[in-house]
Amino acid sequence: MPSLLKARLGLMMFVTYMVWGAWYVTLTTYLTTTLHFSGARAGAVFGTISIASMISPMLVGRIADRYFATEKVMAVLFALGAVLMYAMTRVTSFGAIYAVMLLFCMCYFPTLGLTNSIVFQHVSDSGREFPLIRLMGTFGWIVINNIIGFMKWETTTGQFYAGMVTSLAMVVVSLGVLPTTPPKGKSGRFGFKDALGLDAAVMLKDKAFLVFAVTSVLACIPFAFYFAFTNDYLNDLGVHNAAGKMTLGQASEVGVLLLMPIVFRYLTVRAILITALLCWTLRYLLLALGNAGSGMWMFYAAIIIHGVCYNFFYVTGQLYTDQIAPDRLRNTAQGFLLFLTFGIGALAGSLLSGNALDFFTVEQAGRLVHHWQPFWLSTAALAGAISLLVIAGFRTHARIQPKPKAGEAAGA
Q: Number of C-alpha atoms within 13 angstroms, CB side, residue 330?
């Protein structure tokens, strides 16, 4: 792939993940600390990510597959997202915040699948080239989180202004930088089946992918606990610049993404996913046992293994899904994966995490006190149980493979 094209795709990833990172790890901190939302209400707002991921990615992916160039669809979504991020700086009630975040997430989360699809359609060996391009998204996440931490925006609306500015930057990138990626499916009439993205269901006829789909839903349940409440937890314990320290997880992503092309050569999809889940179990144990003093090293360890936890699961899943998907459904397929992971699985995790935090919260001397250790220990038990289910049920020997060269049979 030409270096200039790699740079353009890398810039796309860099800015896209800045938009996400601007608010993702600090949203519940703002809601609970500044607006004094309960754990259940904060979890419900965080859960708009999941509801949006169940509604819009397959629909938007289907539109990009059949009607409009992918980069133009992205430009419209990020423009709407910028407006909604500004709206987040102006609302404070639970109902208003819930509605605005739901609309924003319906605009933003389809772009994760669309950016992946753009890369997959412009590379020949996605297992080797995609992790290196995706690496720029990690750098974007690190940069924006350090800005949020340095500016002390974790409990203010500054995070939403950052999301607005980076969304506007992505409009410019989408229209002025990205390669043209026209639709590959037939246009024709747009019906109920298209609106729901039901064409992607054909992929479930592949038994291995069906098992992977179920695995994805289950695995994402404990994932939400970390993303929703780790920043809140570290701030509650008095950890200085928690958002900045949490970017060490993205720093570890850099090393893991660089190693993933080698990992794909030696490990099956099953082995990679199981490794990710076992690392999640270890992470929750470290969070439960650590403290802001002599046990701070456990927090650092829990954050640093993020590279394996996140990339072994999500990046492998994205590549595997693209490998299985018919060419005419590649945008839709990425939307389908978001539906399973950030939709069904993360929604269940968001609801469970919020209610679990309330369960382990008591009122003392007129203030709410969270008992974090049992919260994280119960999460570790949940992640461990799901790991055992995946070990027992996911039996595929599939590997991430490069695309066949022109003229080769698909199975050659």
A: 21
- List 362's β-bridge partners, or say none: 369
pLDDT tens readout for residues 215-248: 888 888 888 888 778 888 998 888 888 877 887 8
CA separation for the pair 28, 37 (Å, rounded)? 9
Query: Which CATH number covers residue 287?
Result: 1.20.1250.20
* pLDDT reported for residue 406: 40
Helix (H) or strand (E) holding 364: strand 361-364
CA distance 149 to 245: 9
Sequence length of the chain is 412
378 three-class SS = helix
**Within a domain: residue 325?**
yes
The Cα–Cα gap between 80 and 19 comes to 13
Domain interval for residue 101: 3-180+199-393
Question: Could you tell me the two tokens for 354?
Answer: 């919020």
Residue 48 lies in a domain: yes
> pLDDT by residue (tens digit) across 135-192?
899 899 889 988 998 898 989 999 999 999 999 999 999 999 999 888 876 555 555 4
| Assigned domain for 401 exists | no
Number of domains comprising the chain:
1
> At how many degrees (to 10) do helices 242-266 and 207-236 cross?
160
What pLDDT, on a 0 to 100 scale, did the predictor assign at position 12? 97
- Integer Cα distance of 346 and 221 in angstroms: 5
Find tokens 């860099």 and name the residue. 14
Confirm whether 69 is domain-assigned: yes
